[in-house]
Specification:
By secondary structure, the protein is α/β, with parallel strands linked by helices. It has 4 helices and 5 strands; from the N terminus they run βαβαβαββα. It has a 5-stranded mixed β-sheet with strand order 2-1-3-4-5, with helices on both faces.
């Protein structure tokens, strides 16, 4: 598993990502509002088929629900799973994918 999180409360997020079993953690040290997120870009480039991207909160990957759905779709097409620790979303399971799709339909 690979973890990604921006710098906000990084120690808390690092602890959670480590506890989730992440082997490598990628950071961004800028505002979430900035479009340029080199840590996320590096994490997405690092992921391989069979990996799982783990984030502290779903908004760490997508700026909006539609953006998140797009990004998760891109990951799934590459054979990469997605987990959000705060929302307890895990698309590597059928139940998790169902919950994610329900979120998406409500957005």
């Amino acid at each position: 598993m690979r973890g990604y999180q921006p710098a906000t409360r990084s120690w808390l997020q690092h602890d959670a990502l480590n506890a989730a079993g992440c082997e490598r953690i990628f950071d961004d040290h800028a505002s979430r509002a900035k479009a340029d997120r080199p840590g996320l870009t590096e994490a997405l480039g690092y992921l391989r088929d069979g990996d799982t991207l783990v984030v502290w909160k779903r908004d760490r990957l997508g700026r909006s629900m539609s953006h998140l759905i797009e990004k998760v779709g891109e990951l799934a097409a590459r054979g990469v799973g997605f987990r959000s620790l705060t929302e307890q979303i895990d698309i590597t399971t059928s139940g998790g994918m169902l919950v994610f799709n329900i979120f998406g339909s409500l957005a």
